[in-house]
Prior knowledge:
Blueprint: H1 26-30, E1 37-43, H2 48-57, H3 64-72, H4 77-83, E2 86-89, H5 94-100, H6 104-113, E3 122-124, H7 136-141, E4 147-149, E5 161-169, H8 173-184, E6 189-197
Parallel strand pairs: 1-6, 2-5, 5-6
Antiparallel strand pairs: 3-4
Helix pairs in contact: 3-6
Amino acid sequence: MAEFAQPQHRCSTCALPLPANQPQCGACLKTPPPLDLCLAAVCYAFPWAHLMADFKFHDQPALVKFFANLLKATPWVEPSIEAADLLLPMPLSQQRLRVRGYNQALLLAQQLHARKTRADLLLRMVDTPAQHTLKRAQRLTGLADSFAVDPLKASHLRGARVLLVDDVMTTGASLYAAARVLKAAGAAHITGLVIARTE
């Protein structure tokens, strides 16, 4: 962590690395994303890519404690957890959950703040291909109807400050699609929180 997780200035709404005097990147200024804030601990590169593959695909859920500590050491993460009413993990489809055995985003959210974590509000409606297997254009357009809010529980989101938790952010397509659904359900403020951001 001391060598590879030094704080880095990032765009406030998409978490891409930026020069220190810029609060937002040009793309976010031109087309504001549905996230009010976006935080990432590290860039998706050595050694994090390998560790995250172990966490996500190689049946090593115990790494969640390490990644939660990494996030808590990231500027603005602990205040965002404290300010949030709800921590919502990005949901997996039932098919992918059966194959993997656990939702890494849910484990991460529970490790960050178990009492605020809810895995029953944001639902995955479509089993889309894994985002890392798709080209950028496919990622950006293929998730429009992939998420929904449980209509019987939507009242929990009205006026709520939400922390949307995931492991990796590539184009932001998944987080943005989920955030739009949450905003439509009445969420007042949405912060995206990821371990790693691709550049």
